[in-house]
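User: Batch of two.

Assistant: Item 1 of 2:
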Amino acid sequence: MSVRSIWITGARGFIGAALSRARAVAGDVVHGLGHGEGTAPPDSGLSSWTPGELDAGMLDELLRRTGRPEVIYHLAGGASVRVAEADPESDFRRTVECSARLLEWIAARASGAPVVLISSAAVYGEAGTGMIAETTPARPVSVYGRHKAQMEDLARDHAARGGGPAAIARLFSVHGPGLRKQLLWDLSMRLAGRPDVLRLGGGGQELRDWTAVSDVCAALPVIASAAAADCPTINVGRGLGVPVRRVAELVMQAWGGDARLEFTGVSPPGDPFSLVADPSRLVAMGCRCDVTIETGVAAYVAWSRHLLAGMAGPSAR
């Protein structure tokens, strides 16, 4: 198998870092770009790391040093519904303007290089309680989802105008060791303090399609191979909705203790009731997300327990 040169924007983020390591293990030469100072850690999988804002100057410099990329995975951008609600302008700059600059540069300087843009199930909004196919109209109910939908439109225009083949990967509730935000991290942080009551927003019956980051990393190269002028959109999920209450109970069981689980009944702004993928397109491409939430939670709690014990110091162990 020939060695490929790939670029990953947002390579120091949770998914970007996992993808960098996975592609390096697969034999690719991986060049990372995005926020994060200094050099890449030795175990990052990165052959080079270019820190800073994604712009033409940064991209030109990387092109001079490494040559034309054979695939670009674009993960840079906003990554939190709550942060986007709190600061819409910043999220727009990080997601929409950043994507526009990248696509303009590809069209001008690396036309023909396939690009995979990492989007989110948040673009679907309130789409009912069944599995959501890619043909479902995008009706986002959050700032985060609206900006991801705008990014998708830019990608379709880019591919249709001859800027290069593109594909969109819509990810559903990605989890795994290394994730230091969202529900699993919040639960771990709080359970480490041995609370009597663990109170969460919502009602507990909200459904999410929990997808392991390892499965995402296996799916993205498959999606890259499908990049084309019609910019296909492909869901990345298991096709199985798991209630938030069930996930919280699994985390609590893995941590141990006697905390009582309660729900406020008030959902955070921008959170749909159900987001469950119809993964038929991905499965037809020969790729399936198989890691169960039970396996995923066990791995996550083992990682978070070790990390939090280290942060607390030897006396907490």
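Item 2 of 2:
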Amino acid sequence: MYKAYKFRLYPNCEQRILLNKSFGCTRFVYNYYLSIAKEKKNINAYNYIKDYNNNLKYEYLFLTEIDSIL
């Protein structure tokens, strides 16, 4: 027997903006590294994380506006 819980969020205006920024940045980073993976045909997650922490978030400053934990 499986149980499921459904939750509905009702964010206020500030929370809605933060959620949209977080989802947009996540989508940007995913698509950025997906395009690199398609070009190089080499997927090594450690190098992508290292590149993100050292280069990408300083090159695109909007990535520093959101919380890194999300």
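The two ends are 32 Å apart (CA to CA).
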